[in-house]
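User: Can you recover a sequence for this backbone? Please restate the input before giving your answer.

Assistant: Of course. Working from this structure:
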C-alpha cells in the first residue's frame, strides 16, 4: 500500500520518534514503566542511534527541510547524551527524579 506525501511524512516522523524514545529508554533517561526503574543499556542506545544515522544517509536528498531538521536535531541530541552516558561509570544510573524528555522534544537532558 503506497502512502501519500502527508501520510509518508507522518510515518517518517513516527519512525524517528520511535527510535528516539527507544534511545531515551536505553540511555536510562526515561524510567521503564514496567519496573519503575531506569534501565541503562548502552548497546541498545547505540543500535537505535545507528539506525537513525542509516536512515539519514539512505534518505539523503529525499526528505523535506522539516524532516531533515528533525532528524539532524534528534541525532545530535541523542549522540550527545550517548557520549555523556559513556563517560559515566558502568554502575551509575540517572536520577529518576529528573524530568524525562517528552517524546519528540529533541531536548537534551
Amino acid at each position: 500500500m503506497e502512502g501519500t506525501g502527508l501520510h509518508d511524512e507522518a510515518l517518517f516522523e513516527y519512525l524517528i520518534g520511535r527510535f528516539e524514545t527507544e534511545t531515551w529508554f536505553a540511555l536510562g533517561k526515561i524510567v521503564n514503566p514496567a519496573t519503575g526503574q531506569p534501565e541503562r543499556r548502552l548497546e541498545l542506545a547505540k543500535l537505535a542511534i545507528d539506525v537513525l544515522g542509516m536512515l539519514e544517509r539512505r534518505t539523503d536528498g529525499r526528505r523535506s527541510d522539516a524532516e531533515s531538521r528533525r532528524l539532524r536535531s534528534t541525532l545530535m541530541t541523542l549522540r550527545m547524551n550517548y557520549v555523556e552516558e559513556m563517560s559515566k561509570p558502568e554502575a551509575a544510573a540517572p536520577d529518576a527524579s529528573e524530568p524525562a524528555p517528552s517524546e519528540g522534544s529533541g531536548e537534551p537532558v
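That completes the design. Strands lie at 27-32, 37-40.
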